[in-house]
Amino acid sequence: MFLSFCNPTKKEERPVWEPFLLFGLISYASTSPFDAFAERDIDFPRFLGTWNEIQRIDNGFQSGLRKSTATYTDNGNGQIGVLNQGLRADGGITAQNGVALIPDSKVGRLKVSFAFPFFFGDFLILRIDRENYQTALIGGPSANFLWIFSRQETINPTIEANYINYAKEIGYSVESLNRFR
């Protein structure tokens, strides 16, 4: 039984993955205080492709990487393929493959997993260049997850400043943003 581990009187063997799958379900259903700031009516096919990371708040899974990119592809099965890459100090490339799910096509929020289906993290499109889909402000579920993306390796300084000001206004820790180009 799926939730047999919740019944301590039951002595049957259960698959070792059961608690991880339950954790995955919980993380998929989780919400964040930043969800309300996600853009609406994102054209996800236009969002697909490769984005250059202009700035980020450093985090454990990208620590030490520079010239990072994120590539999103249509897997054709309702999932979006995610490939995050970055250059290590030794010149090698670190790459992480994952999947993203769109819980609500009207909201700019993805549930991203690099350990599918055992864990999901929120990926919020907080701002995007609606005309050309060339720049984006991306947030996570807490104030310490923030990225500025561009299709090019640079970004217009005015757009970048507007993104930073907006992120600060809604509660992200923008003083921790850094360039890793």
What would your notes on this structure say?
This protein has 181 residues and is of the alpha+beta class. A hairpin with a 5-residue loop joins strand 3 and strand 4. The longest helix has 14 residues. The protein is globular.
> How many strand elements?
9
H/E topology pattern: HHEEEEEEEEHE
For the largest sheet, list the strands in their spatial order: 1-2-3-4-5-6-7-8
What gross morphology would you assign? globular
Low-confidence sequence ranges: 1-5, 17-29
Q: Nearest-angstrom radius of gyration?
A: 18 Å
Please indicate the percent range of residues in DSSP E strands (runs of 2 or more): 25-35%
**Count of helical segments?**
3
What order do the helices and strands come in, and which of them pair?
Layout: H1 18-29, H2 44-47, E1 49-57, E2 66-74, E3 80-87, E4 93-101, E5 109-113, E6 121-128, E7 135-139, E8 146-150, H3 157-170, E9 177-178
Antiparallel strand pairs: 1-2, 1-8, 1-9, 2-3, 3-4, 4-5, 5-6, 6-7, 7-8
